[in-house]
Amino acid sequence: MKEKSDRYRIAITIIICHLLLIGTLVALFIADALLLEEFTPLLTLLAPVTAIYAGSVFRYLSGSIRAGVDAPEEVPLPHATLIRKLVLAHFAAMMFLILAKAVFNWIEFSTMTILMTLLETSFGVYMGMVMSAVFGDT
Fold first, then answer.
1. Which of 71, 87, 121, 132 has the CA that lies 20 to 30 A from 96?
2. Is the per-residue pLDDT at 65 higher than 70?
């Protein structure tokens, strides 16, 4: 597997997962599973992070388009499978918290926001390192 292909898969995974989270929030709000007072803070938590990730991904994708077909052979991206699995675990945990509150009502909204903030902060450091390592040199 080439680095470009690994990077592309990671990029698409990050974008799709964040769009799914935001889409799920919107759908739950429309279905009255989330109140406006719950929907707004969740969206303000996810939207800036999505914009940061999307900016890095689109910068990489636009750079790979400019590189064209004459680009040299790329080396495999180390730990690409592990990176993809950790990215998916991060988004699965976020989705679980959203569904645990909005659909199953297993947790209170305040507990969910505390856990999401902790999760975003913890994974945010890791994701920042991943984004820098995977997409930073484009």
1. 132
2. no
